[in-house]
């Protein structure tokens, strides 16, 4: 009998957001930079995270989900009839 097990998994592909991206999003929210400026920062940082993954020879490549705020809310806000509400206290997760 073999002790080797096949482990199957799926990767979400989300990477921690760099400080520069967080700062750019805050500036965009405050009206200090344009959507075009934010997109340029996202594009550059996505290119960097892709280069890092290639350097490590990962079998699949992701954009790090750097354009998303919340993996599930961004998806749900795309549905008709789902209202996008920003809460002052943020979203509280338990579990």
Count of DSSP H/I helices = 3
Question: In oligomeric terms, what are we looking at?
Answer: single chain
Residue-averaged pLDDT, rounded? 84
Describe the main β-sheet briefly: none
Walk me through this protein's architecture.
The chain is an all-alpha fold. The protein has a domain at 19-76. The protein has helices spanning 19-29, 35-55, 71-76. Helix 1 packs antiparallel against helix 2. The mean pLDDT is 84.
What descriptors fit this protein?
95 residues, mainly alpha, extended
Task: Kindly summarize this structure in a few lines.
With 95 residues, this protein is mostly helical. The protein is 40% helix and 0% strand.
Write the layout of secondary structure elements.
Layout: H1 19-29, H2 35-55, H3 71-76
Helix pairs in contact: 1-2
InterPro entries: UROD/MetE-like_sf
Protein name: Methionine synthase II (Cobalamin-independent)
Organism: human gut metagenome
